[in-house]
Amino acid sequence: MKFTAQQIAEILEGDVVGNLDTEVSKLSKIEEGVTGSLTFLANPKYTPHIYTTKASITIVNKTFIPENSLDTTLIKVDDAYAAFSKLLEYYNLVKLNKTGIEQPSFISDSAKLGEDVYIGAFSYIGENVKIGDNVKIFPNVYLGDNVSIDDNTVVFAGSKIYSECIIGKYCVINSGAIIGADGFGFTPNENGEYSKVPQTGNVILEDFVDIGAATTIDRATLGSTIIRRGVKLDNQIQIAHNVEIGRNTVIAAQTGIAGSTKIGENCQIGGQVGIVGHIIIGNNVKIQAQSGIGRNVKDDEVLQGSPALSYGDYNKSYVHFKNLPKIVKDINDIEKKINGNS
User: Fold this and answer.
1) What is the mean pLDDT of the chain?
2) pLDDT at 342 over 70
3) How does it assemble (predicted)?
4) Cα separations (Å) of 106 from 16, 124, 165?
5) pLDDT value at 266 more than 70
6) Which of 95, 124, 143 is the last residue of a domain?
7) How far apart are the first and last CA of the chain?
8) If we measure between CA atoms, which residue out of 303, 311, 248, 310 comes closest to residue 274?
9) Number of independent structural domains in the chain
10) Is the residue at 338 inside a domain?
């Protein structure tokens, strides 16, 4: 798909300096630009590349004044980085703007589909599923019975959403994600064997939630596992049964959260963090990567380590830990002097 400089300028509310009819069909870094590509200049340290780039169109700030001749058409905007991000979002919408039902696929007679829906090949849509307007279901997706997906949500290839789960508006569920698998619930009997505890609840994703590739969110034992509005989950995260994650919290890859833990709003949790079950983490909490959280956490705490300490205490302790051999040697020397003088 090709766009002219004039069309792009209209989308970005920018001004063209150069040929209005210059066409582009792909994106590039400014230092790797080729004919037919679009790039941008936001960071001043990349300015030298604008004089050598082969990109056909470059988005720049309105304050940019070239010092040498250019071979690229400029589109001047208030904020080049924000404008390029907006264009990426627009490009994604155009790229994903598929409609229709591909075959082979299975759609239950009792399922209800909204307008401008896309159902990719080899997808399975179960009994009483409700799919809103402009929802995109890519190939090889499984939607169990009674699943509900609201308007403008995208479910990428190979994702599985088990029965009874509820997905809000403008959500993105990336490939291989599993929403609503059974929680890890077993109870030991007198023979030392484990019996499964039925997991009868569901998962609720509120609006504007992003779920990374191969992330798993388990259904509740009773009630719901709830991911609140605006939460962003990276790839390969495990969310256990009955967990609740507050609005606009972001969590990086390979984090695991055990059952029935409640996490507040606007938290930032790094990669490979382990969080035990049945605790409460407050609002605006920041947890550094590879930390282990085994206690309740108050609002606004910043934690690091395993078990996690306050960020300041961890750094002070780490300084002493690095010096531990010297500290031990100094103590031994002092003991020898004391013993020698006794």
Assistant:
1) 94
2) no
3) Homotrimer.
4) 49, 5, 19
5) yes
6) 95
7) 89
8) 303
9) 2
10) no
Q: In sequence order, what E strands does 116-185 have?
A: 118-119, 124-125, 130-131, 136-137, 142-143, 148-149, 154-155, 160-161, 166-167, 172-173, 178-181
Helix (H) / strand (E) containing 322: helix 311-322
Strand partners, 211: 173, 233
Token pair, residue 16, equals: 């063209």
Question: What is the model's pLDDT at position 325?
Answer: 83
Q: What is the DSSP string of 68-123?
A: S--SSEEEEES-HHHHHHHHHHHHHHHHT---EE-SS-EE-TT-EE-TT-EE-TT-
- Show which of 60, 80, 95 is a domain's final residue: 95
Is residue 67 situated within a structural domain?
yes
Contact 75, 14 (CB under 8 A): yes
d(CA 130, CA 124): 13
The residues near 138 (Cβ < 8 Å, ≥ 6 apart) are 118, 120, 123, 154, 155, 156, 157, 159, 175
- Check whether 281 has a pLDDT greater than 60: yes
Query: What pLDDT sits at residue 97?
Result: 85
- 80 and 116 in a single domain? The answer is no
For tokens 């792909």, the residue is: 26
User: Which band of pLDDT confidence, cut at 50, 70 and 90, is reported for residue 341?
Assistant: low
pTM here? Answer: 0.82
For residue 90, the model assigns a pLDDT of: 85
Nearest to 204 by CA among 213, 188, 217: 217
**Which phi-psi region, left, alpha or beta, contains residue 335 (left: φ > 0; alpha: ψ -120 to 50)?**
alpha
Give catalytic residue positions: 241
The 10s digit of each residue's pLDDT in 13-29 is 999 999 999 999 999 99
Q: By the 8 A CB rule, do 290 and 270 touch? A: yes
Q: What is the pLDDT of residues 93-143, one digit of tens each?
A: 778 889 999 999 999 999 999 999 999 999 999 999 999 999 999 999 999
**DSSP label at 329?**
H
The number of angstroms, rounded, from the C-alpha of 297 to the middle of its chain's C-alpha atoms is: 23
**Per the structure block, which two tokens stand in for 32?**
């790797």
Tokens of 223: 């009630």
Same domain flag for 205 and 285: yes
